Amino acid sequence: TWTTAAFVEEAIREIRGKVGNKRVLLALSGGVDSSTLAFLLHQAIGDQLTCMFIDQGFMRKLEPERLVKLFHEQFHIPVQYVDARERFLTSITGITDPEAKRKCIGHEFIRVFESESRRLGPFDYLAQGTLYPDVIESADTNVDPQTGERVAVKIKSHHNVGGLPKDLRFKLIEPLRKLFKDEVRRVGRSIGLPEEIVQRHPFPGPGLAIRILGEVTAERLEILRDADYIVRQEINRQGIYHDFWQAFAVLLPVRSVGVMGDQRTYAYPIVLRLVSSEDGMTADWSRVPYELLETISNRIVNEVQGVNRVVYDITSKPPGTIEWE
Ligand code: XMP
């Protein structure tokens, strides 16, 4: 029978056998897959592993700090923190089309990844948190026709975009490739990853940038990040985080009139998107208590400068999508 302990032991043996004394690069995303992967590799090869975290500036409030801290303090794994926030924001300025945003972020990611991996490298292997369903999906695209080995042509966290340059086509190391998501979660839990990572809701690669409709600006990012933080706080306070597939805030690029004290306000609306789903392919808007909506709405309007209205999205998927972009 399959046990996490046996898997970890076998994975470590396999990594050591494959890597030898070579160097491995891993791009952390903050999710359960890349975190578990980092742990396994670090156990197996210690400082032959370089973990890199590229901060695009589109993560949720406090998440980059928490991730780096967790790795340092709990796992004693050093993380190369790459602060690319300015770069990403500059590159996305003026772009309003959802797919153009994704492309722009994806290309920027590849560029940063490329220069950072040259700066920190050279590396022989790229570790990816490929899971069994991904292996099936990319069966032929990732195989070197000469050697039959799987090679990196894309970065998994940004699978919807751009490829790696030819001379950066690392050999792949994919210790999770036989696992399904729930097995990764079990392994993650068994090695001491906190529940907030193990059971984290899906979070899109382009992050908050696709939850700000229209143009992404520093001001809008700050507003959305604060509103989103309140949504999560209230849901956690109720102990219902796991009732949702995703639960988040979206910022609309329009403004409406409101009143605060004896002042007229003219500010952004925030949309609450709380959905249940099995796999993200279809989703149902969540019938949450009015009191929860009320608390979230009051807090956002009172605490987040620049927001004067909160609306609840009652559209299921289909016909709506989960994200607004
Ligand atoms: P939609 O909005 O299409 O989302 O109903 C379905 C699931 O996919 C996630 N999603 C993304 N994930 N990059 C990602 O890594 C993306 O560009 C992206 N767009 C949507 C979304 O959060 C939901 O879980």
TrEMBL record:
Keyword list, A-Z: ATP-binding, Glutamine amidotransferase, GMP biosynthesis, Ligase, Nucleotide-binding, Purine biosynthesis
Binding residue positions for ATP: 29-35
Domain GMPS ATP-PPase: 2-200
GO molecular function: ATP binding; GMP synthase activity
GO cellular component annotations of the record: cytosol
Catalytic activity: XMP + L-glutamine + ATP + H2O = GMP + L-glutamate + AMP + diphosphate + 2 H(+)
Leader sequence segment: none
UniProt pathway annotation: Purine metabolism; GMP biosynthesis; GMP from XMP (L-Gln route): step 1/1
EC number in record: 6.3.5.2
Quaternary structure and interacting proteins, as annotated: Homodimer.
Functional note: Catalyzes the synthesis of GMP from XMP.
Protein name in UniProt: GMP synthase [glutamine-hydrolyzing]
Source organism (scientific name): Neosynechococcus sphagnicola sy1
Gene this protein is translated from: guaA
Parent-record interval covered: 211 to 535 of 535
